[in-house]
Amino acid sequence: MAILETESLTRRFGDFTAVDSLTISAESFAVLVKTRERFMGIGQVLTMPLFFASNAIYPIDIMPRWLRMAARVNPLTYEVDALRALMPAHGVSVYGLAVGFAVLVAAIAALIMVGAYAYPRVVT
């Protein structure tokens, strides 16, 4: 019973961290633009390279060297890896949940600082 509760808590923390990192990154960039159209354009320009330079589609091992280096500094790589580890059936992680959560928490903290720094300058 305690194992199931721990797994459930870990899954919830993983889901929260993944959703929180996406939300905070969107909010950090939203304070910099004035219109929704610009925000959507900037979002696509940032999201698509991050997605393709992660392990969401292909394993890092088969990527070219330059893309492998980009994937290793991409927080989305660690998010995808952590979410794969939390899959109910045979979840496997390359980096481990602790590393994935640490990278995501660091990325969230950095994005909060960017948003907090940019917000007062945009509003006033």
Q: Any overview of this molecule?
A:
By secondary structure, this protein is mainly alpha-helical. It has helices at residues 2-30, 36-52, 65-72, 75-85, 97-123. Residues 1-5 have low confidence and may be disordered.
Q: Helices, strands, pairings?
A:
Blueprint: H1 2-30, H2 36-52, H3 65-72, H4 75-85, H5 97-123
Summarize the structure.
The protein is built from 5 helices and no strands. With 124 residues, the protein is mainly α. It has one domain (18-121).
What's the pLDDT, averaged over the residues? 77
First-residue to last-residue Cα separation: 53 Å
Question: What are the low-pLDDT stretches, counting only 5+ consecutive residues below 50?
Answer: 1-5
| SS class | mainly alpha
What fraction of residues sit in β-strands?
A: under 5%
Order of helices and strands: HHHHH
Please, how many helices?
Answer: 5
Largest sheet: none
CA-atom Rg in angstroms? 16 Å
